Amino acid sequence: MKRLFKCAAAALAMAASPAIAQDLTIVNATLAIGDGSEPIADGVVVIENGKVVYAGARSGISGFETDKVIDAGGNWVTPGMVAAVTDLGLYDVGAVDPSNDAGAAKSRFNAALDFSEAINPASQHVQIGRARGVTRAVVTGNPGGSIFAGQGAVIDTGADPQPITKARAFQFVTLSEEGAKIAGGSRSAAREELRNALREARDFAAGRWQGSDNLLTRADAEALGPVIAGTQKLFVEAHRASDLRAVLALKREFPALDLVLVGASEGWLVAEEIAAAKVPVIAESLQDLPERFEQLAATQSNIGRMRHAGVNVAINAATIQNMHHLAQHAGNLVALNNLPGASGLSWGEALAAVTSAPARIAGFGGKLGVLAPGAAGDVVLWDGDPLEVSSAPLQVFIDGIEQPLDSHQSRLRERYRDLDESDLPKAYDR
Amino acid sequence: MVSVTRVFAGLGSALALAACSATSGGSTDAKSASAATSADDAQKSLPFASTYKAYPGEPTALVGVTVFDGVGGRIDNGTVLLRDGKVVAIGASLSTEGYRVIDGAGKFVTPGVIDIHSHLGDYPTPSVEANSDGNEATDPITPEVWAEHSVWPQDPGFTRALANGGVTSLQILPGSANLMGGRSVTLKNVPARTVQGMKFPGAPYGFKMACGENPKRVYGGKGKMPSTRMGNFAVNRQAWLDAIAFMKDEDRKRDLGKETLAGVLDGDILVHNHCYRADEMALVLDMAKEMGYRVSAFHHAVESYKIGDLLKENEVCSAIWADWYGFKMESYDGIPENAALIHQQGACVIIHSDSDQGIQRLNQEAAKAQAAGRRMGIMIPDAEVVRWFTLNPAKAMGIDGVTGSLEPGKMADVVLWNGSPLSVYSRPEKVWIDGALMYDALDPERRPVSDFELGQPGEGDVK
Fold this sequence. Notes:
The complex is a heterodimer.
Chain A (H helix, E strand, L loop, with lengths): L1 H10 L12 E8 L8 E9 L2 E7 L10 E4 L4 E4 L1 E6 L37 H8 L2 E6 L8 E9 L7 E11 L2 H6 L4 H19 L12 H6 L1 H5 L3 E6 L2 H13 L5 E5 L7 H7 L3 E3 L18 H7 L4 E3 L10 H10 L11 H6 L3 H6 L17 E4 L10 E6 L2 E2 L5 H8 L15
Parallel strand pairs in A: 1-4, 1-5, 6-7, 9-10, 10-11, 11-12, 12-13
Antiparallel strand pairs in A: 1-2, 2-3, 5-14, 7-8, 8-9, 14-15, 15-16
Chain B lengths: L1 H20 L11 H13 L14 E9 L5 E10 L2 E6 L8 E4 L4 E4 L1 E6 L38 H7 L3 E6 L7 E4 L1 E4 L17 E5 L2 H8 L8 H20 L7 H10 L4 E5 L3 H14 L3 E5 L8 H6 L3 E4 L17 H7 L3 E4 L10 H14 L6 H6 L3 H6 L17 E4 L10 E6 L2 E5 L23
Parallel strand pairs in B: 1-4, 1-5, 6-7, 10-11, 11-12, 12-13, 13-14
Antiparallel strand pairs in B: 1-2, 2-3, 5-15, 7-9, 8-10, 15-16, 16-17
């Protein structure tokens, strides 16, 4: 049996896996697979060579060989959460500019920017995200000097120097009110910026590009080639119902585009059309106020209504106050089921909205955010219901490797557990 | 012109009486009827006086509920009686004769949620420049501005705070661009056509101050003082000295800013000081001693856990988020155990929002803070945690004599939750303010919709 599992794992090996992972089996778990299904009692997760080889009921396997057995004692086990879209790893302190690589408003380049080059795996935010059960992130900076932010990366939050799961996984562009402002002051300008850029990229790819006649830099035109070809996803931020329809219409002129909608505060108003276009959405979850005119119809039922219309939808981490609140947002969508008139998610769907759904949308369906054979061994053992605000991870594994959960925060907590300075100042308390 | 200070002080003490007079049999001293009458008269003579009136309610009995009373008590399978806008009684077995009975089996009752730190109305949604009225960022010292003059009562955020957050009272503060940002206003979360119609009757004024990064950045960036933390203190101290001189000046003319500072120095206006770092809070406490005023609460006090002893000794509350950190330099040492560690030192914890989203989930934030404490071995009962978003903010806002807990005679500001208020899966099912049912999740007719949202996409949605 062990050999069989190893074959399966090898076939699905991904780039950038760490070298050594201990084989591991978690037993006696309240197991949530992350695929939208409801939890399984007495679940087992078997990990070999950093990959999941089995996750399911104890009764589903006859036996296993492993290096280490962890008895979950009935506690919850889930895939690690996938935060999409976020600037995690791009800053130490948001408001301290030199530590913050999420914006490049004064750069001469835009679409060409490769955020994988700026990721700092030692950022405290990465460490804290990891300790809160976020094991992967779909990362981009913010548009500044152009409607294009640049090329985003899929990363892990592991305590190792190699955070990149996939560099240049997607291009990010905004057609929001902010995009209109960046483009010169009008939605029309933003759309023309986008169309022009895509046309120039098409010309560049076809060898018809003359630098002097074009608005893009060479680097930006080259970077948009995979977008035009549909080999790199195009994440498009938009919120207003009419803007969302305009994004869907882009495929008429550029049929190969592999579109993902981001934000979509009024997505529920366009849910049927989004579902028909088969465009996935990384959507606002609890945003329920008209912060901007493009969000007049914002409601916490946004995701539930889109899901019920058949849209492939994940919770957007970008506008959540702290990225590690993802699970709390998912839990709140479950709470909506008890409010007449509201549309929430089932518990399993809510977990999926922060695990398998964002992973699938980012191009890692079956490989991240789900405990299925062949998926990365990103596993979290929780001290309670993972969507409940009082719960926290007990153990976190990434690619099958157990992760440290300490941080600047945990060290401060231990130092200030008491205020006793009778012998020496706090500075000596380590 | 001695009378200016006298009048001012007089109003302040009258306010305190007014707050007490509304309580009968509550935790605070009862005052005589004559005192209440003069307090009412004083109220009416105030500029921009409250015109709030409670809406009609019916005698209501919530039965079979788990009650968290806000003062640390818990009653399982309890009854809560509301009549004439007041809490009549809570207990395990009370007669419900003459009351409309609501069966609350499996549900929970708490006092109405109170947010001590909100900018609803002065930074409303839509958050467009034309509505951005929270910072008079033209001078670091603006005690003369009053937040109530910026509050737009049609801010849709008030309705979300009610429906999703169970918020019944809230303090609207000026922003933190200025060292002295101006007066706050305390509101009942009842929609009204005017801000006066929302003003909490008898609530003392608050006074917003700010430490640290914001004032020095805003004014340093304009090439004026303060551009450093030492500049912050110098400008503050001089402003206090000027106010003290004003109070002693028998020939003074009216001065709006100095009248506010005099109100603080007289103890009638409560100081709410935005301050992240422990070392700065300690300096502020010494400045307050030097000048002769008290700090009621430090807001955003992410480092309070480093000086819980000092905060207890000075009886200052810490109004905090559960776990925000790292978004600016002075928040870098924020930890999720902050509330539990403050509590462990015996100091006062308040969970605040400073956010039109966070105000909808103060209960969840408190639950997170409780759980972080539990994981480090600090066990705090649910009933105590409920105090963090009910009675403790009421206390720091000077309205604890009349609201913030479910004690007989207090305002019937009450939330019926459809599950434990410390669970992510729970929401307010019904909210009463002064005994009037202002929100009912089961009745779309009991859901306020602001003027702004009428005829627009999503009008009247569950939100």
